[in-house]
Each structure stands twice: as C-alpha cells, then as structure tokens.
Model the fold of this input.
Amino acid sequence: MKLNRLKSGELRNRALKMSGHMGVAISRVYIVPAGKGHLTNAYGLSNAIGLTDSLGQHLSKTQMDYVMAHELAHVKLRHGRKDFLLVLTIYSALVLILFRFSQHAMALQPVAELLVLWSQFTICHDVSNMLPTE
Done:
C-alpha cells in the first residue's frame, strides 16, 4: 500500500484547519489507493490521517468532514498506540498463562479466545465533543 501525501488542495486544508480546531497536531494528510478491492476507509496515524481515494466518491463534503474528525480523534486519543499495547499485553499474558498451565491449556482455550476477542473492543471513546464547530 502506497501512501500519497497531499501537499496542497482543499481536502488537505480542511483537514489541517479541523486539526487546529480539535487541538490535534498533524503534519500530513495522505490519499491511499483503494486497490483492487475498492476499499473505502480512513486511517488515523501517529501524526497524520489517511483517506482512501474512493472515499470522496461516496461521501458529501460534510460526511468527509465527519470522517476526518473521527480519524483526528483517533490520533488525539492515541488509539493506535493504546490498542497495540493492550493487545500485546493480553497476548503476552495469555501466552504466559497457557505455558505455565499447559496441562490445562485445552480447557482454558475458550476463555483465551474470548479474551482475545474482547481485547479488540475495549477502547471506546465518545468523540462527539471533539467535533469542530463552525
């Protein structure tokens, strides 16, 4: 996947203005090719956001602003880093538990699977108060 950095344009300017309103420090806005699967998505990176090139074909300007605000909220709240650390911690704990109690590992498998699934949904934040107002 190749990220194409926007160096100018209305979309970039709107994203940077919105980031200022939200108090989020980003330095880059990327356009991501949708690819063969025609993926329509957006991404919040550590100090940037990425939008698939097909996103603008399906959304109005207002809807695009909400998508960008959503991704900026992910950047502000550092969800990528938090999610990674949480998943790493849970997987590490499960590995240690399953190795320590290997004779009981088969009985613990359903619990381990539930913990892995649960870890993916633990960080949820209400971002409505971070949306910029005109």
Remarks:
- The longest strand covers residues 28-32.
- The radius of gyration is 19 Å.
